[in-house]
Amino acid sequence: MAPYGLPRQPANANEPPLNWRRGLFRVWLLLSVAWIMAWVVYLSLYGIRVGFRELGDFLALPVLLFGPPVALLLFGAMAGWAFRGFVPDKER
Q1: Is residue 66 over pLDDT 80?
Q2: How far apart are CA 66 and CA 21, in angstroms?
């Protein structure tokens, strides 16, 4: 039977390889910022609970209510940026 249509090619024939170097660097940067952010949240909560008694009531509510959602938003934005680093340069 005669072949009709487009000739078959391997799926990866024209696709450039992933950019592992840039992608893994961004993932490392993301994890480093998450580590620093976790320590900042822990130390600020410890400071509010123990160290800052006169400003504790004033600072505790905004940090506890708005801190985790803002941190999660920033982490999500950075995670998207980090995983876009794996996209090859040709497809951007």
Answers
A1: no
A2: 35
